[in-house]
Amino acid sequence: MISASAPGKLNLFFSVGRTRDDGYHDVYSIYQAIGIRDFVKVAVAEADSLQITGSLSNEQLDAVPKDQTNICFLAARAFFEHNELDSTPLAIEIEKHIPVAAGLAGGSADAAATLIALQELFQTESDLYAIAAELGADVPFSLLGGTAIGSGSGTELEPIDSAEVEFLIAYPNQGISTKESFALLDGLRAEKEEIQLRLPGSDFYEDLRLGEKPPQLGQNDLAVPALELMPSLQELIELGGNVSGSGPSVYFFEPDATLISALQESEFSWVLTSGNQPGARLEV
Q1: Running DSSP on this structure, what letter comes out for residue 187?
Q2: Is 116 in contact with 282 (CB distance < 8 Å)?
Q3: In the prediction, which pLDDT does 206 show?
Q4: Alpha-carbon distance 96 to 99, whole Å?
Q5: pLDDT (mean) for 124-142
Q6: What b/e sequence results for 130-142 when a residue is b if at least 16 CB atoms lie within 10 Å of its CB, and e otherwise?
Q7: Is the pLDDT of residue 190 over 80?
Q8: Cα dihedral value 118, 120, 122, 127, nearest 10
Q9: Contact at 8 Å (CB) between 117 and 90?
Q10: Pairwise CA distance, residues 169 & 99, whole Å
Q11: What is the mean pLDDT of the chain?
Q12: Please, what are the domains in the chain?
């Protein structure tokens, strides 16, 4: 079996604009890859199969699709079509560590890792970024990793310099639908005039490069929908956290012992990790 991994991500800044003709929204995002990674193993088989394990709760693991709708199979289908290869049955094993439906791009990481593994397995030289862009807005960044500006639908990436800092990520053991979150945002904006993308100031990028906390860190147009869909997140916001993507994961920049003590008494799961990590890669 060929093994590959890919990181989860945080949205350090996330602005949402108009709905595009392709159904996606215009966005301006600052992505950062984190040290929590999912691992995917792929092998040619007599029939398709999917096995899911990992460090997450049973409730989280049960939420991962186990049929042909799983994004790993979708990635494989797109890979075969792009390379004009006959569809081949695959045995896929996913080791999940990125929380599910949590705004951390766990599914996108699985797709990216699958593409890397398939490239090695079939010895092709295909443009994985082009395939990734067809699968979802976050999949290209899962391939890239590090820190990057994402524009357009989020697939147009510009890598930027960033220091490695520590984050604490807290999350409930239930998810928020990204589609539902965007729909709620559109509904909240329905009576407003033309929507303009907000951009961070130039000092934002300099602070990231120096490993300092930007004043605009965590500005996220999907934070309000996340709080409407899951009001319990307000507890984490009041502790100084920021919603990542569509939520419900909330992250804290360079956490201290006081925060950790408070979370130990809460109902939220949490994990310490670092940012600015590598993108999808093969594993020995």
Answers
A1: H
A2: yes
A3: 97
A4: 8
A5: 96
A6: ebbbebbbbbbbb
A7: no
A8: 70
A9: no
A10: 10
A11: 94
A12: 1-284 (3.30.230.10)
Neighbours of 50 (CB within 10 A): 17
Go through the chain and tell me how many residues it has. Answer: 284
Q: Which residues fall within 8 angstroms of residue 142, CB to CB, at 6 or more apart?
A: 6, 7, 9, 33, 105, 108, 109, 111, 112, 113, 132, 279, 280
Under a CB-based contact definition with an 8 Å cutoff, are residues 278 and 33 in contact? yes
Q: What is the pLDDT of residue 130?
A: 97
Active site residues: 9, 138
C-alpha 32/C-alpha 244 separation (Å) is 11
Q: Give the residue from 47, 129, 103, 66 showing the smallest Cα distance to 222.
A: 103
Instruction: List, in order, residues 6 or more apart from 193 with CB less than 8 Å away.
Output: none
Q: Is residue 223 within 8 Å of residue 16, measured between CB atoms?
A: no
pTM for the predicted model, two decimal places: 0.93
Average pLDDT over residues 210-235: 96
Residue 112 CA to residue 141 CA, distance in Å, equals 9
Tokens 């934002």, residue? 204
Which residue type is seen at 227? L
Q: Please name the residue ranges forming H helices in 211-248.
A: 223-229, 234-238
